[in-house]
């Protein structure tokens, strides 16, 4: 009997297709101008765009894959309402991805091994300020502990949006990886959660250039676009939905993302109740040695202790 595309390819194709739909929803909220901002806690916002994009993404996955675990950032009553307009549900999957050659080790993955982590709008603080270039949609398809396929979607790229995707063991699509500068080191860190402690930590990395931008997805894009060697966030704050999609795309491109000890975060469903990336986020370009960089991070940490 002829076998259809592997489940991982179907999930990645679905992720790209639904990101395009959710991206349009986010642009429409911005165009209407009524963001419906809610403060979820200290320096942690939610808007109508976060809520609607999440409903679109989760309802689409639930419609196509009712038995697959999806963990999404927003947990309020409105965001959990999956009774969405019919045209918010995807009906066609990205055909190029559907038909790509699935890496052998991922070709027979079963539904119960999968967790999909969704950040429907990463960079909400920046979105609320109109800094739309910092905003991304993040979808990470994870098998057991590992982020293996992902999408970083930029809803405001050239006013029409674009999807950057990766499948570990296959490669990337939607963009080309660029190399970071060779004459100086450039690190990218938080814009909205910056404070004295982060400044002191980053001082330990000098001499270097520091770029501060919003969003975990956007910072990984800086690495992929060759604008930075590494993403440095030396404290708890990001969650698994911030890193699953970006980690998968970065890994597929040859880069790495770990905690401050060089350990990988686990994306298994058991982390739903405690999704915090406790030991920070450190990600490196394919052209920058992660192990060597983490030695430097560990030296800075021990000097600060
Ligand atoms: P940033 O690098 O500050 O733009 O953060 C990247 C992602 O992690 C965003 O989704 C933030 O909301 C989240 N994040 C980072 N630090 C914190 C924090 N201290 N509290 C809440 N969310 C955070
Ligand atoms: Mg986020
Ligand atoms: Mg978010």
**What is the global morphology?**
globular
Distance between the termini: 62 Å
Number of helices: 8
Main pleated sheet? 6 strands, mixed
Q: How are the strands of the biggest sheet laid out side by side?
A: 3-4-5-6-7-8
Low-confidence runs: none
Quantity of strands, as a count: 13
Number of domains: 2
User: What would you report as the Rg, rounded to the nearest angstrom?
Assistant: 18 Å
Q: List ligands, each type once.
A: adenosine monophosphate, magnesium ion
Q: Which architecture of the largest domain does the CATH hierarchy give at level 2?
A: 2-Layer Sandwich
Strand content: 15-25%
The percentage helix is: 25-40%
Mean pLDDT: 97
**Broad structural category:** alpha+beta
CATH H-level superfamily of the largest domain: Fructose-1,6-Bisphosphatase, subunit A, domain 1
CATH class of the largest domain: Alpha Beta
H and E string: HEEHEHEHEEEEEHEHEHEEH
Under CATH, the topology of the largest domain can be stated as Fructose-1,6-Bisphosphatase, Chain A, domain 1
Task: Summarize, please.
By secondary structure, the chain is of the alpha+beta class.
Task: Describe, in plain words, how this protein is organized in 3D.
32% of the residues lie in helices and 22% in strands. The protein is built from 8 helices and 13 strands. It has a 6-stranded mixed β-sheet with strand order 3-4-5-6-7-8, sandwiched between helices. It has a 5-stranded mixed β-sheet with strand order 10-9-11-13-12, sandwiched between helices. The protein has a two-stranded antiparallel ribbon with strand order 1-2. It starts with 6 loop residues before the first helix and ends with a helix. Bound molecules: adenosine monophosphate (AMP) and magnesium ion (2 copies). One magnesium ion is lined by residues 119, 122, 216, 242.
């Amino acid at each position: 009997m002829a076998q259809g595309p592997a489940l991982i390819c179907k999930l990645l194709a679905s992720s790209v297709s639904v990101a395009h739909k959710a991206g349009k929803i986010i642009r429409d909220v911005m165009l209407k101008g009524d963001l419906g901002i809610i403060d979820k806690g200290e320096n942690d916002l939610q808007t109508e765009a976060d809520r609607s994009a999440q409903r679109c993404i989760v309802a689409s996955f639930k419609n196509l894959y009712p038995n697959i675990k999806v963990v999404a950032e927003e947990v309020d009553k409105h965001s959990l309402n999956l009774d969405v307009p019919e045209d918010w549900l995807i009906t066609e999957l990205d055909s190029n991805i559907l038909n790509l050659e699935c890496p052998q080790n991922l070709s027979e993955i079963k539904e119960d091994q999968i967790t999909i982590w969704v950040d429907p709008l990463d960079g909400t603080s920046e979105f609320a300020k109109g800094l739309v270039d910092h905003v991304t949609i993040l979808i990470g398809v994870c098998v057991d502990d590992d982020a293996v396929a992902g999408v970083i979607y930029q809803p405001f790229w050239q006013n029409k949006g674009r999807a950057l995707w990766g499948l570990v063991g296959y490669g990337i699509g939607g963009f080309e990886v660029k190399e970071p500068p060779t004459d100086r080191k450039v690190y990218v860190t938080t814009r909205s959660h910056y404070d004295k402690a982060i400044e002191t930590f980053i001082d330990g990395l000098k001499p270097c250039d520091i770029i501060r931008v919003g969003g975990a997805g956007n910072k990984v894009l800086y690495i992929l676009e060759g604008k930075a060697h590494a993403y440095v966030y030396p404290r708890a704050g990001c969650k698994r939905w911030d890193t699953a999609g970006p980690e998968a795309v970065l890994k597929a491109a040859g880069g790495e993302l770990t905690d401050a000890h060089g350990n990988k975060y686990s994306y298994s469903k058991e982390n739903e109740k405690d999704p915090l990336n406790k030991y920070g986020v450190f990600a490196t370009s394919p052209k920058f040695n992660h192990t060597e960089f983490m030695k430097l991070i560990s030296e800075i940490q021990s000097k600060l202790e």
